[in-house]
Amino acid sequence: MREQTMITWLQTIIAIILLYVVFEKLRQWRLEGNIPGPSTVPFFGNSLILWDYKNTQDIGRIVMKLQGLMEYGNLCRLWLGHHLIVGVADPKSLEVIFKSNELLNKSFLYDFANDIASGVFVSSGEKWKVLRKIVNKVFHNNNMENQLNVFNNSSKVLCQVLESKCDGKSFKIDNFLHRCILDITCKILASSRNDIQLKKDLTYIEDVHLVAHLSFERLLRIWLYPDFIYKHSTSGKMKQAASNRVLGFGLELINERREFLNEVENSITVEGYSNPKTFLDYMMDYAKARNLTDLELSMSITDLIVAGSDTTACAISYMLLMLAMYQDIQEQVYEEVHEIFGDSDRPMELKDMNRMPVLERVYMEVLRHCCPPHIVRRVDSPLYLQDKRIPVGSSLYIMLYRLHRDPEYWSHPNSFYPDHFLPENVQQRPKYTFLPFVSGLRACPGQRFSFIMMKIIVSTILRQYKITTSVRPSEIKLSMTLMLEISGGSNVQLTRR
Ligand code: HEM
C-alpha cells in the first residue's frame, strides 16, 4: 500500500515537471519568435553559461564569453532563467534604440545596485526625468572650463605624490589616479575643500569596487536574487557593510557643504564660495523638497560620483599602460604636449585644450577597448528591430564590447590602434559604431568632463615623467567593475624627464 502511494506521488511529480517543461518551452518559443540564440535548459534557460564564475576576476571573462557566444548574429537572444535578454550590436538597431523616447528605462538588473545608489544613473521613469533635468542643468551651467585651476592643482598634487614612486621600481598606478579623479569630481560637483589625495584612511575606492563586484556576483547567481536570501548570505552582509562605508563618504560631503553654507550665510567674504550652484547644492534642494533623509540624499549623489570618477580613472589607468607599452605612441603624444608647453611648468589653459588631436585619438582608442562593455534597457512598449518583434518585458542587452570589436568597422579590432580615429577613418565608419558614452536622451552627461580630466592629468604626468612597463600586450587580461579594466592593475615605471 505504502509502495503504491509512493509510486503515485512519483508519477504526479514527474507529470508536473514534464508539463512545466512543455509549457515553458512553448511560452519561450512564443515570446522569442524568430530571434536566434543558444538552446535552453528548463528552469535555468541559458544561465548555466554564467556558471563558471569563481571570483571577481571572472566577470570580464564571462562578459566577453557572453558577447562572443552570441554567434547567432548582432541581434540574438538569451534566457536568464525566465527572463528574456535580447542582445544587440548592430548599428542600425542601435540607432532605433538610442533615437527612441521610449527605451529609457533601465532593466531590473540595475536594481541590485539600489542599496548604494538611487540617483540618475540607476533610476527610471518620472524620477529619472527630474534627476536628469538637474544633471543637465549642472553640466550646462557649470562652466568647467572656468575651473581649470581645480583640474590643474589636483594633477600637480598627483605628480607630487608620484614623485615617491619614481625609483625605477614597477608599481600599480591605478589607485593614485582614482584618488586624483575622485578629488576633482568632489571639488567640481560638491565643492569639497578637502584634499582627498592626501587622506590616509580612505577606503572609498576599494569599497566601491567591492560593492560592484558583489552586485555582479549576485547577478550571476540567480538563487541570490530574492532579497530575503541575499540579506542573510555572506556576500549580502559584506555588501551591506561596504555600502554603508561608501554612503558615509557621501554623508561627509553633505555635512562639509552644509557647514560651509552656514559660514557663508554669516560672512560674505568666505574664500571658495562657488557660484553657480554645484550638483550637490541642487540635490540638497531636491532632498529638502521631498523630505529625504541625509542617507537618501547620499544615495542620490553617490551614483553620479561613482559614474564620474570610477569610469575616467579606469580609462586613464588603461591609457597610461598603453602609452608605456607603445613607446612610439607615447613619443608622439609627448611631442604634441611639448610643442604646447615647451619646458615650462605653466598650468593648462583653455586655449591649449583643442591643440591635442593625438592625445584625443589615443583616448578614444582606449575607450573603444575599455568603456562599459554593455548597458541594459527595459522594453516597455512594442518594439521591432530588424523586422523582429522584441517582446514587452524583455531586456535589451546592448553589446558595446562586441560592437567596438566588429571587424566590419575596425581595421585592427583586437589591437591598440589610435589611427582608427584619424578623421578619414572616422568618416568611413557608419554612425552608431563607436558608443563609449552611448547616445540619445540617456547618454552620459560627463563626456566633456572626462575629456578635460584626461587631457590635464595625462599631459601633466607626461611633462614630468617618461612611462615604461615590462608588461607585454599578450599578457593583458581584462576584468570588470563599471568599465573593463586591466586585471591586476596598470603596472608601470616612472622616470623623470
Ligand atoms: C571614461 C569616462 C566615461 C565613460 C566611458 C562613461 C560611460 C557612460 C555610459 C556608457 C553611460 C550609460 C550607462 C547606461 O545607460 O547604463 C553613462 C551614463 C552616465 N554617466 Fe558616464 N561615462 C564616463 C564618465 C562620466 C563622468 C565624468 C560623469 C560625471 C561626472 C558621468 C556621469 C554619468 C551619469 C550621471 C550617467 C547616467 C545618465 C542617465 O542615465 O541619464 N560619466 N556613462
UniProtKB/TrEMBL annotation:
Q: Which GO terms describe its cellular component?
A: endoplasmic reticulum membrane
Cofactors demanded by this protein:
heme
Phylogenetic placement of the source organism: Eukaryota, Metazoa, Ecdysozoa, Arthropoda, Hexapoda
Cellular localization per UniProt:
Endoplasmic reticulum membrane; Microsome membrane
Q: Does the keyword Hydrolase apply?
A: no
Residues spanning the membrane? 6-23
Positions bound to heme: 444
Protein name, UniProt field: Cytochrome P450
Gene Ontology molecular function: any one? oxidoreductase activity, acting on paired donors, with incorporation or reduction of molecular oxygen
Q: Keywords on this record?
A: Endoplasmic reticulum, Heme, Iron, Membrane, Metal-binding, Microsome, Monooxygenase, Oxidoreductase, Transmembrane, Transmembrane helix
Membership in a protein family: Belongs to the cytochrome P450 family.
Transmembrane helix as UniProt keyword: yes
- What Pfam families does UniProt report for this protein, alphabetically? p450
Annotated membrane topology: Peripheral membrane protein
Where it mainly occurs, coarsely classed, is: endoplasmic reticulum
